[in-house]
């Protein structure tokens, strides 16, 4: 697998005027999910966290439905995702999940206080 930090990451055939022509790198990145090596603990945590967030956001935006117990999983996976992002040194992901943890905790408190 190529190292994207390598200055020779793209060959001349792949680059035209600074744009990737031969391959879409996001497709290549997505294909790594098919390999067993991809599914280490941090990547599995990321997948579960993003799936949980999608299960909260999509019904909320499309149907106005809020599934309160998903916020428990969001809280847990966001905390785990902070750990995962720390291992991978991704500060924006760390901040996003700190904010998402606060959001999930606030929603749960609101849910149980108004119940």
For the CA atoms, what is the radius of gyration? 18 Å
Distance between the termini: 52 Å
Low-confidence parts: none
* Run of helices and strands: EEHHHH
Structural write-up:
The protein has two domains: 1-36, no CATH class; 39-114. The protein has helices spanning 25-31, 41-63, 70-88, 91-114; strands at 15-16, 19-20. 14% of the residues are buried. Helices cover 63% and strands 3% of the residues. The protein has four helices and two strands. A two-stranded antiparallel sheet has the order 1-2.
Please summarize what this structure is.
With 115 residues, this protein is mostly helical.
List the defining traits of the structure above.
2 strands, 63% helix, mainly alpha, 2 domains, globular, two-stranded antiparallel sheet, 115 residues
SSE layout:
Blueprint (H helix, E strand, L loop, with lengths): L14 E2 L2 E2 L4 H7 L9 H23 L6 H19 L2 H24 L1
Helix pairs in contact: 2-3, 3-4
